[in-house]
Amino acid sequence: IVVAPVIPADLMGRRADIAAARWRIEASLSDVANAKTLFYPNINLVAFAGFSSIGLGRLADAGSQQWGVGPALRLPIFEAGRLRANLRAKTADLDAAIESYNAAVVDAVREVADQLASSHAIGRQQLEQQAAQDAAQSAYDIAVQRYRAGLGNYLNVLTAETSVLAQRRLAVDLAGRALQTQVALMHALGGGYAPEPLQLSKTLQK
Questions:
Q1: What is the crossing angle of helices 154-188 and 80-148, to 10°?
Q2: Verdict on whether the full-model pTM lies above 0.90
C-alpha cells in the first residue's frame, strides 16, 4: 500500500462530524453577535411619525398608543440584567461549541493517525511477504530442476510447491487488508483523499 508522504490537513474538514461542529460554532457566533446588539438603544422611526413634540417619558409607550407598533424607543439600561444573562448564556453556548469542535478534530486526527500506522505496517508486511514468496518460488524451481535431473524426489517438489501456494494466499490476504485500510483512511479524511494505486505482488499481477 502506498500513502502520500504529505496529506493536507484541511481534508479532515470534509468529515461530517467536523463540518457539523464548525456550523455549530458559526451559529453560536451569530447568536453572540445578536445578543450584543441588544445592548444598543433601539429607535422605532415609524413610531416617531405620530408625534409632533414628545417628552422623554412618553417615548417608551406612546408609540403603541398612536400607531400600534410598539414603543418608539427601547433603552437597554432598563433591562441590562436580562441582557447580560442572555449574553452569558450565548457565550457559554459558543464555548461549548468550540470545545465540541476541538474534540471532534482531536478524534479525527487520532483516527487518521491510526489508519496511517496500519497502512505503513501492512506495507512493511507486503515487502517481507514478497521477499518470502520470491524465495519460495526459487526453492520450488530448484526442486523441480533437481527432480527432472534425477537428483531429488517428488516429495521435495510438493513441499516447495506448498510453500509457494501459502505465500500466494498470504499475498492475497495482505492485498485485501491494504484495500480495507485505504478505504478506512479515505473515510477518516472525509472522503477527499485519493491514495496512489495499490502495489500488487508479482503473483497477483499474473
A1: 160
A2: no
Q: Which triple of cell numbers denotes residue 146? A: 533437481
Nearest C-alpha neighbor of 108 from the set 183, 184, 177: 184
CA angle 188, 192, 198 (to 5 degrees): 80
Tens digit of each residue's pLDDT (9 = 90 or more) over 28-85 = 999 899 888 877 766 655 555 555 444 444 444 444 444 444 455 566 666 778 888 8
SS3 139: helix
Residue 18: which of 94, 112, 115, 102 has the closest Cα?
102
> Rounded to an integer, what distance in angstroms lies between the CA atom of residue 151 and that of residue 125?
35
What's the gap between Cα 140 and its chain centre? 48
Grid coordinates of 103? 474534540
